[in-house]
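Table S2 (text version). Query chain:
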Amino acid sequence: MAFLDYARIHIRSGKGGDGHVSFRREKYVPAGGPDGGDGGKGGDVIFETDPSMNTLFVYKHRYQFKAEDGGPGEKRRRHGKNGNDIILKVPEGTILKEEHSGRIVADLSGENTRQVILRGGKGGRGNMNFATPTNQAPQYAEPGKSAMELDLILELKLVADVGLIGFPNAGKSTFLSRVTNADPKIAPYPFTTIDPNLGVVDLGDGRGFVIADMPGLIEGASEGVGLGHRFLKHIERTRVLIHLVDMASFDGRDPVEDVFAIHAELEKYNPDIMKKPILIAANKMDVAAYAEDNPLQRLKETFEPMGYEIYPVSAVSGEGVQELLEAVRNLLDTTAPEKVYYEQEFFPEEMTIPSDLPYTITVGTDYRGDTEYVVEGPKIERMLSYTNLDSEKGYLYFARFMKESGINDELKKMGIADGGTVRMYGHSFEFWYDEPVGEDVEENETEQ
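Corresponding structure-token output:
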């Protein structure tokens, strides 16, 4: 299967089923009353990481993905069928971005292996819910909540312990094929490798690591030249870099200048990359040993004073390769794992809540006679219908919505104190103007 690290897709959750209008009609029951059932909930759109995947190729020829709509309510108070979720599998390290803004929706890496991206609409209530002493035969039911839609960019940033970098023809593919079980294409011309290759280095006794051969970089890569951005992004998640340098210089390149040029591109793209441990592998020494100007000596004189370790190797003969791999393993053992995780910037729920939707705040008392503040209105009801308050992430998102929409400020003006009770459509919360996070939030969730 071909490698693909970029895809565009359109996703849609399921619409909630409409509530049903019906009345109980049985012999000897002349006034059976309303018995229209509620509609079913629409299906969610869920992304999950799949350890067996290392490419986004499955999304190359399919663009639309849709969860199932909820079924309508039925007579005799029967609930409509809930729509089936749709689960989209992606490789670990996949970032989801909202296409039009470029903001991050989710980063499926590390411990974040499953995330609900779009929630299905709630089912509408049947007419059995609307009977009152003054209206015992309601002729209406509630429509199901609408579906949510989103245009997404999927970007894969490979998760590897070690990144192998260097100019085209530096010998990276040959090196990878020697030290791992990978089988990259090898040919003697620039840009032979246009896709990253992953391989596992086995040093025995369970001491191994994953290495990624990054496509050959060129000057200007940090500005997008030669698909530079698509290549450089894979380096961000690696812990250690091996910079493979062509010491034979068949095409007239100078090894010292090559190292400076690649490091300059990394610095311009993301300065944090240059903070990673970098080992310089002087490759093709089986040929360079016969050079008159002793390029290895020049490389050492230039970069060893800067703190770089130089390892002369030959990917073809295997000379010096084992020493380099042992040095890499030692670096990994002493380098703390770096979690490169991209925080969520775009919240799909916000698209469903127009800013001008009204809400009201009234002061009342609960069944114990304690003061409570009741917040109601379509703005609140719609937000609650799309938010999972059982998860920490959903709870934090709702708290952020309350603060940024000005509701917390309004409650404060009306006299509520920290710890006071706020009630919204069957949910009761303790009010905290500066919403606690972390362990405090988990405690609040438990109390609810």
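Notes on Table S2: Residues 183-194, 219-229, 436-448 have pLDDT under 50 and may be disordered. The first helix runs from residue 172 to 179.
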